[in-house]
Task: inverse folding
């Protein structure tokens, strides 16, 4: 079970059990749908901007524990970030999932997102963890077509 | 490479099979995953290969490899003979009347596409109808949708009940003089349901419709007789029946195959070519353009010999026992809900666990060395019918044991603990 612990950390299980920021923001500035055809995970993200800053992000949908917890933690991490900061954070997050290494080397600002460092051992699950991020990127750009991880 | 009938016909099918001896035939079954002995329960996706099949393929490369039907030299003659012998074995496996009714293809998918684009393009027109069931694999849906787009025909779907049984009464209502093709699987990869294909075929024939049966999940579990079913076409894939991937079979009734235009053009499928006129080859070569998967076909022949050596009725009896055991054990876990509880099933067990996504189940089971499939199983319309995005699926075969089922059950209990 020790290896398993690396993926299903308590923080992930907690955010899966009680996801934060579930729902839809009122009068959104951007919305997007995301879909992972491999597992049928579906997510919709809506966000409210304050100038260049993300005021709040909410998500709805159903998915596995990794995708739900990732969406939940993402909504917390993005609050108050500028578009630019959000893009940088996504890049770092993606590195964390795909390159085995010390999460601390990615520099400051990763915070709780480090809990996903175990995902890089499970290449089949990377898409679950990035679905919400791809979707929020589209929401920031307010794209109309649904995002797919395939 | 001639088949000795006494080797392929098992004299003592009444004696139950010795699973330990059988497991020794499959080298991969002795490996470990995450430090634990592998429990391979993803047989509906693809089966493992016995030494007999591995050796047959190896033997092609080591001692006879040549292109077929072309050379006058010894190697070509030997390889051609082995390849054509595999065709005889495939014909015998499904009791085709003639070996020329057996066409080697890449797999079930290619077989269905071939029928849709040759027979279908010729026989189906605007306003005609094609019937499939709600259980079909995407391979038996999309080729017909493409044909419908090309011809203006319509696809009709036979519903299933809450247990996953195909509703034959509803099927009767869909049949009409407009029906040209009925395409249905014999057993479902997603739920395990066995479909009464004899009855399906008989009813279709009353309306003059032709029937394609997808045997991808049946030939490895039960003895199949295409003449008893009386279907017009039958397809299956080698890799799901202990043979290599990239080889499969399309069976078609001779009269239909003769009348069908070729699928692909190229070498092997012609008798003579000039720039003015090309004369197509006889069956089955008319449908086998280009150099085929020679070693795959020979491996398929070896797999058929292996299966017949054990005896399909013994296999069916053993797998039935395994399915009953697994169903009973998994049902004891209150959080587990089985999807697919049809009257008659092959050894496929789809399930969901309350509040836990199948992908999380799959990952944790993998940690425990247990390989199952999670997802939609290329049968999204079936998942939609049961209101789930995906299921976890344990698919068993004759090299699995009750101890392995116990490992599955323990691992599912671990999943529930992790997410409690
Ligand atoms: C019922 C059924 N039909 C068709 C197929 C397609 O087989 P292949 O991918 O080997 O062509 C499968 C494979 O999963 C199947 O289970």
Result:
């Amino acid at each position: 079970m020790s290896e398993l612990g690396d993926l299903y950390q308590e923080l992930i299980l907690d955010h899966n059990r009680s996801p934060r920021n579930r729902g839809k923001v009122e009068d959104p500035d951007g919305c997007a749908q995301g879909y992972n055809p491999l597992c049928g995970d579906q997510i919709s993200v809506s966000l409210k901007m304050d100038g260049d800053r993300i005021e709040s992000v909410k998500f709805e949908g159903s998915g596995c524990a990794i995708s739900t917890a990732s969406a939940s933690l993402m909504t917390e991490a993005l609050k108050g970030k500028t578009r630019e900061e959000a893009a940088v954070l996504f890049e770092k997050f993606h590195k964390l999932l795909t390159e085995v290494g010390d999460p601390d080397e990615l520099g400051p600002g990763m915070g709780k997102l480090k809990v996903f460092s175990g995902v890089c051992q499970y290449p089949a699950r990377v898409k679950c963890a990035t679905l919400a991020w791809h979707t929020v990127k589209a929401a920031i750009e307010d794209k109309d077509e649904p995002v797919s991880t395939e | 490479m001639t088949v000795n009938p006494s080797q392929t016909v098992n004299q003592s099918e009444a004696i139950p099979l010795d699973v330990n001896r059988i497991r020794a035939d499959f080298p991969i079954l002795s490996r470990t995953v995450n430090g634990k002995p592998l429990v391979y329960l993803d047989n509906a996706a693809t089966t493992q290969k016995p030494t007999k099949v591995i050796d047959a393929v190896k033997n092609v490369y080591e001692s006879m490899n040549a292109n077929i039907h072309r050379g006058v030299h010894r190697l070509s003659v030997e390889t051609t003979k082995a390849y054509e012998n595999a065709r005889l074995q495939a014909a015998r496996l499904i009791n085709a009347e003639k070996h020329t009714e057996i066409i080697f293809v890449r797999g079930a998918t290619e077989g269905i596409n071939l029928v849709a684009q040759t027979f279908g393009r010729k026989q189906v027109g605007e306003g005609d109808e094609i019937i499939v069931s709600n259980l079909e694999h995407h391979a038996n849906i999309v080729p017909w949708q493409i044909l419908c787009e090309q011809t203006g025909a319509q696809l009709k779907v036979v519903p299933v009940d809450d247990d996953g049984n195909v509703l034959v009464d509803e099927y009767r209502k869909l049949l009409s003089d407009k029906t040209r093709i009925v395409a249905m699987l014999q057993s479902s990869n997603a739920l395990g349901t066995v479909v009464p294909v004899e009855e399906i075929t008989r009813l279709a024939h009353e309306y003059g419709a032709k029937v394609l049966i997808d045997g991808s999940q049946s030939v490895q579990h039960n003895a199949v007789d295409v003449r008893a079913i009386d279907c017009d076409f039958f397809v299956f894939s080698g890799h799901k029946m202990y043979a290599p991937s990239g080889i499969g079979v399309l069976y078609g009734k001779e009269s239909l195959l003769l009348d069908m235009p070729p699928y692909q053009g190229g070498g092997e499928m012609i008798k003579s070519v000039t720039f003015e006129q090309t004369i197509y080859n006889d069956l089955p070569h008319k449908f086998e353009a280009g150099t085929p998967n020679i070693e795959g076909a020979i491996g398929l022949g070896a797999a058929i010999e292996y299966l017949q050596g054990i005896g399909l009725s013994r296999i069916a009896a053993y797998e039935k026992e395994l399915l009953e055991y697994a169903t009973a054990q998994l049902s004891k876990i209150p959080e587990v809900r089985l999807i697919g509880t049809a009257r008659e099933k092959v050894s496929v067990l789809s399930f969901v666990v309350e509040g836990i996504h199948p992908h999380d189940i799959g990952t944790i089971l993998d940690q425990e060395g247990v390989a199952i499939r999670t997802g939609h199983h290329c049968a999204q319309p079936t998942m939609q019918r049961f209101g789930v995005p995906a299921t976890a699926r344990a698919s068993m075969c004759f090299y699995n044991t009750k101890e392995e089922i116990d490992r599955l059950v323990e691992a599912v209990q671990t999943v529930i603990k992790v997410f409690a």
About this structure: The mean pLDDT of chain B is 95. The CA atoms of residues 50 and 389 of chain B lie 34 Å apart. Chain B touches chain A at residues 34, 356-360, 363-364, 367, 374-376, 380, 383, 389-390, 414, 418-419 (CB under 8 Å).
